[in-house]
Each structure stands twice: as C-alpha cells, then as structure tokens.
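OP here, attaching both records as promised.
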Amino acid sequence: MAEQSTVQSLDRAFDLLETLCRSRNGMSIGSLSAETGLHKSTVHRLLTSMCARGYVQRDAETSVYRAGMRLCEMSSYIVDNLDIVERARASLERLEQCTDETVHLVMRDDKDIVYIHKVDNGSSAIRMFSRIGMRLPLYCTGVGKAILATWSIAEVRDVWQHSDVHAWTEHTIVDEEAFFREIDKVRQLGYALDNEENELGVRCIAAAIPDYRGRASYAISLSAPVSRMTDQRVAELRAPLMAARDEIARALGGSRF
C-alpha cells in the first residue's frame, strides 16, 4: 500500500507540473486544485516539495505558482546527453569520402575540447596525432575557436582568463587582443582555421554545430598536412564542411547560423 501511495504522489506531482508548464501566467493553488481535481492541501504539499527543488517557483506577493528554471536546466542535460556520435556518424563518413581528409568531431568540456569521434583519411601516408579522448584547450584549436565564436564576449573572456594560455607552437595565439580579433573573424566567416596552432605541420578548417539556441558545444573539422591544406584547398573544403555541419545540426534539432 505504501508503494502504491508513493506512485500516486508521483502521478499527482507530474499532473501539477505539466499543468503549470502549459500555463502562461502561472496558477494559484485554488486554480490548480480545480484544474487537476486534487484537494488544496495535497496541491500545497506537492508544490512545497517541488519549490524546494527548484521545479516550481512561487510569487510571494500574488501566491501564484509557475514552472521553475530547474526544468530548463534538466532539459539542457538531456540535450547534451544525446548520442551525438551515432547521429553524426553517417554525415562524418560521407564528409571524409567526399573530401578524402581526416574528419574530427569534438565536444566542449569546461575550458577544453575532447575528441569524441574521428574518421581517418585512409589514403594518406600521414596520420594525425589526434585520438578519441584527447583533450586540448578551446583557445588554440580550430574546433575550439569555432565553438567559442557562438558564445557571448563575456563567456569567451572568462574562458580565456581561466585558461593556461601558452604557446603550443610558434603559431599559437597568446595575445588577448589578437585572440579576440580571431574570434570576431570566425564569427564573420562562419568557420575557424587552425594554422598549426597546436600541432606543427597540420592545418584544419572547423565549424561549430549550433543547438536550438544557436549556441554550440560541439564542432567538426577537416585536417590535413600544411603542404596540402593550402588556402585554395581550404576554400574547396568549406562547402562540404558546412553542409555536413548543417546536416548534423538538423539531426540534433539545432539551428543554422
């Protein structure tokens, strides 16, 4: 009986929460009681518990209840935990086949990016040192700069100020003003370049994958030796890279830039 009562309480709590989510201006305990058929004392008890956890908010002046921001936070976790590798795999494989270049998929983790998928260029005699699980700073990678370019200036500045900024190679941007000029350039172009900034001899073009807000936590890139990745080659790779980016964004329910 105790277990049945607990389940019943959960059902009632979800009924209240779903009702509040559909309400544009919030609802009083009396309105919720009438809408759900629950006794006012039951509604009050359940709302008190949900308020304590942030799922519901109460206006102290009007005693009106609204769905809380905790729901938005939890929904963002759900979006972040989508199996992006499986959803992106086919697009990434097609990108490698049509460009014959190494493809990477990364995710942002705090001030770094982490490689979560890689499609090697099988015909190249040169292998990238990147590997799944490798972690690199946002500030010195093409994929990292592409992701940062979708964030606010304040967020980018916070990452810069809390990163261990140093020269990975002679080409790494370590001057703050130069770095912000680079981010602005990425915003204008819609893609980022890594000009041997974290690995000598390797150049890449990268594009962020925007979510439904236009903000990115993931990015893809095409990498090749500098001898092959000329400016002309970068220009040739831009269209297929962007097409793959848009395809993956749509699969994830995101938006285009």
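Record two, same layout:
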Amino acid sequence: MLTTATPILLRKNEAANAGSLQGQAQHRNSEQRAQLSSSQQIADALALVSDCLVPQRLMVRAGDVICQAGQRFDCLYLMNSGFVKIISLSSDGREQVVGLKFRGDWLGFDGIANQRYSCDAIAIDTGEVWAIRYDALLEASLRRPVLLNLLHQAMSREIANDRDSLMSVCTLPADARVADFLRYWADSLAKRGLRTDQIKLRMTRAEIGNYLGMTLETVSRALSRLAKAGLIEFAEGGRRDILIPEVDALRTFIQGGMTPAPALLQ
C-alpha cells in the first residue's frame, strides 16, 4: 500500500528533475551567448585592424611556412581563417609543437624581443593570414590606442593559453590530456561560431603526441578508450573526424583527472 508520503516524494523528485533540466538549459544558453560574444569580438577585432591598417593578405595552404625561426622580425601576422601550428626547434634539431592558432589569433610575438622569430608558424589547412608591419602597427596605435589594447589582450591570451597547456602536460594523465586537447579544439571552434559536435583534427596522431608530450601509440590508445567510454566517436569519413556528443562530458572527465572506469573499457 502506498503511503501518503509517496506522492509527496514523487512530486519532490519530479520538481528536482525539472530544476536540473532547467539548470542545464540555462547553462547551455549562457554558453551559447558567450560563444556568440566571442565570435563577434573576433570579427570586430579583424574589422578594426582592416580599417586602421593595410594588411597584406596572404593565402596559405597546408604546409606553407608563414614565418620561420631565425628569420628577421618585421611583421606580426593575424589569422583571418584556417589553422596554424607553432613549432619550436631545439639546439639539436628536434621539433616540438608548442602552439595552435585559430581565426583571430596573432602570430610572431616571439620575434619582438630579439628581432628574430624563434619559432616556425606552419599552416595546417587552407586559410588567409594578414601580414602587418610592426612599425606601422605601433604608429597606428598612437592614433588609435584601441589597437594597442587589442594587441595587449592578444598577448595576455597567449600567455594564459601557454600556461594552461603546460598545466595539462604536467598534471593530467594520458587520457585526460587527450580529452583536454579535444575540449580545447572544440572550445576554440565554438568561440569562432563553428560547430563543435564534429571536428576534423588537422594534425596527425604523431603531431598531437608531440604537442602533448606523448607517443603516437599512447595518443591512439587514449582516443580508443575515450571512444569506448562514449565521450567521443569516430566519424565514418576517417579517424581524423571526431564526433563529440557533449563537450561538457569531456570537461567532467578532465576534472576527474582519471581514465575511464574499467567497466567501460571491456
């Protein structure tokens, strides 16, 4: 026999579930508004640079070198579209992927101090990059201080991204590190108004491993475990096409800082 407390308990559970769903919807709406704001800020920044300066517009394709370590510094580069990887060379010739750049990102800050670029910037997809003479940018900033503020914001974001990348490499286990890489890629696309439920990785497994301080085999195994855990799926088009059902699920997994539960790996 049902007691009078049972209907009350059911109503409380229903109310709790409704509140949870409402909270999730509000969170998604808040994220969407933030993403639209970020996309608009990037568009506004590009429009400002285009209005105040006369950037040289360069079409690039995968493999094209935009600037090279040791080359004399005279320009900063602003990405209008495409994807770029930043490579640092050690004294013994080893290459290390140290950064990824998306639309609205700047390239070449490493050349300011010593007047020579210290890294290679290489396109990993077809895109457009704007070359902006540094002296012209400084001169224009005197007339339009908002340009200097734009530059400082870009430098600050690069410092923060480098710090977060270092934290990931130093503190997260392999599976969480790969999950964080996918989360970062998806978030970067979202900020530019692009879809995040399916992403095409513009890097090989070996390049991802180089960036994350892991071997190719470790990256492949981590991706397979994430797929078995239901956090990602491989699209039919190829193993560079990754489906991400819920980016929030990746975030939760990363925060846990652990590999998927053994039951999910069987």
